[in-house]
UniProtKB/TrEMBL annotation:
The lineage of its organism: Eukaryota, Fungi, Dikarya, Basidiomycota, Agaricomycotina. This is Uncharacterized protein. Keywords: Coiled coil. The keyword Coiled coil applies. Residues 1-17, 215-226 have a biased composition (Low complexity). Residues 19-41, 233-244 have a biased composition (Basic and acidic residues).
Length: 244
């Protein structure tokens, strides 16, 4: 008698277990969907909460952007002579959209910028004067040293370090100061041009707009300009003589 062996077969899972697994999968899917929804809602609320104002749908007019770009710049600037001359009408149209009071504030701001430039020019001139005097001192020391000055070299070097106190070559320092001075003169001229354009806008608004602050505006312009350097008299800076 022959016996045949058959491979054991697993019985199918009960129907209740299959339903249980399906319910678990469905619960996990709904949980992930709810988590994703909560994340989206949280991000939306964060964006709403930390947005202090509504974003502009369009940039301000080109003329006003040019005017704002032109104001407030000093020595290191991306506005040059061509921008001021060729963009004069754009500059004026941009500022003409503002109220007379704001125009007055723009003029005062530009006047303060010019005062800063004048202060830097005076400082640069003073630094040039001091540097050239230190240079004269070094030449005098060299001449006396060549005549066998009765001072040891270490003491002489100490005196030079105290009086001169330059970390770079003094001639290079003088050249650098002259370059800074020339740059400040350019900035001063440009500031004068912008002040003139602002004053023209103020004058037109007072004539055609019937500004109530006519008298105060005119007095501000006159008193401010009375203490200023004539913009056509910049040659006086080039003729400065240093005291011997």
């Amino acid at each position: 008698m022959h016996y045949t062996s058959t491979a054991p077969t697993s019985s199918p899972a009960p129907l209740s277990a299959v339903l249980r697994r399906e319910k678990v999968k469905e619960a996990r899917g709904s949980e992930q969907e709810a988590r994703s929804k909560r994340t989206e809602e949280g991000q939306f609320l964060m964006n709403q909460r930390f947005q202090p104002y509504k974003r502009r749908k369009a940039p301000p007019p080109l003329e006003l952007r040019f005017a704002m770009r032109s104001l407030g710049h000093s020595s290191v600037t991306d506005i040059d002579f061509e921008d001021i001359v060729e963009g004069k009408h754009i500059f004026e149209r941009g500022l003409s959209t503002l109220s007379p009071n704001v125009i007055k504030m723009a003029y005062r701001a530009q006047l303060a910028t010019k005062q800063c430039i004048l202060s830097r020019i005076n400082t640069t001139l003073a630094e040039l004067d001091a540097t050239e005097k230190r240079s004269d001192f070094l030449r005098a020391v060299k001449e006396e040293h060549e005549k066998e000055l009765s001072v040891v070299s270490e003491e002489l070097q100490c005196v030079k370090d105290v009086v001169v106190g330059q970390g770079i070559d003094i001639d290079d320092h003088i050249a650098f100061s002259h370059a800074v001075y020339a740059e400040e003169l350019v900035a001063l001229t440009m500031s004068d041009m912008q002040l003139h354009q602002l004053s023209m806008i103020q004058g037109r608004q007072m004539v055609f707009g019937g500004d109530n602050d006519k008298s105060s505006s005119s007095s501000d312009v006159s008193t401010s300009d009375s203490s200023e350097v004539d913009p056509t008299d910049l040659d006086r800076y080039d003729d400065v003589k240093y005291d011997e």
